[in-house]
Design goal:
Layout (H helix, E strand, L loop, with lengths): L2 E6 L11 H10 L1 E10 L5 E3 L20 H4 L13 H8 L4 E6 L9 H12 L5 E5 L2 H10 L4 E6 L6 H8 L3 E5 L5 H9 L3 E5 L4 H7 L6 E4 L2 H12 L4
Parallel strand pairs: 1-2, 1-9, 2-4, 4-5, 5-6, 6-7, 7-8, 8-9
Antiparallel strand pairs: 2-3
């Protein structure tokens, strides 16, 4: 069964987050979309990891940007998994899943991150199968300057009508918002403007069931099995 949903950092309730193992398992479950986080090593390699440090998700300590790729690759990200490169993740997903690449830019913490990511996307031949998002909207502006065609999106915490004209300005088609801020009015405005609304990260099954009444939402969740069950029972059977 294909499950229309965004696998948040892979399959983190069962497998180490942002690892190839988790990505493969999300793919096997039938998820149509994959969300992952990208930062740069000291020598400029785009790697898939959420935090600015390796402390929480590996057996190492220190900032991601303080490691060379060779050094960071030696770390155990859980169950013997290595921190993947963006290229590895993209090649796994190619022609199988759409990938939401969240740029973990914070100010200018990673000079050149946007360029490196876009180059990697092009090299993988994934231009039509990815979109770039970030909480740092200046990062998204830089991405648009670098590539006039790549799909873009904004991550925001709360709901605001001001996001829609800004999306138009950026020619961006995605907005990702914390699920508690979703209202019928916000959803309708996104529909009118042909914006794909993403909600993060509802994991409780009762919440997932309540969101299933809006089948055009893209659900970004850690609870892949829970969403697969709700999707089958509440979305597919009513479509």
């Amino acid at each position: 069964m294909t499950v229309r949903g965004l696998a948040h950092r892979g399959y983190p309730l069962k497998y180490p987050e942002n690892t190839m193992l988790g990505f493969r398992k999300a793919l096997e479950l039938g998820c149509t979309h994959l969300e992952l986080d990208v930062q740069l090593t000291k020598d400029g390699v785009p790697v898939v990891i959420h935090d600015p440090t390796v402390n929480r998700t590996t057996n190492g300590t220190g900032e991601v940007k303080s490691f060379t790729f060779e050094e960071i690759r030696r770390l155990d990200a859980g169950q013997g998994e290595a921190i993947p490169t963006l290229e590895e993740a993209l090649l796994l997903a190619k022609d199988r899943m759409t990938v939401d690449i969240e740029l973990k830019q914070t100010g200018l913490a990673y000079p050149g991150l946007e360029q490196k990511v876009i180059e990697t996307v092009r090299h993988a031949g994934m231009e039509k199968q990815v979109f770039l998002t970030s909480f740092d909207h200046y990062s998204i502006e830089r991405a648009r300057t670098l590539d006039s065609d790549i799909e873009l999106g904004l991550v925001i915490y709360g709901a605001t009508p001001s996001v829609f004209p800004y999306l138009d300005q950026l020619r961006a088609k995605y907005v990702s918002v914390k699920y508690v801020f979703i209202t019928p009015e916000f959803l309708e405005e996104a529909r009118k403007r042909d914006i794909q609304l993403i909600v993060w990260t509802p994991d409780d099954e009762s919440v997932l069931e309540s969101l299933a009444q809006y089948p055009d939402l893209l659900i970004c969740t850690n609870n892949l099995e829970g969403w697969a069950k709700v999707y089958k029972e509440k979305v597919l059977l009513n479509s």
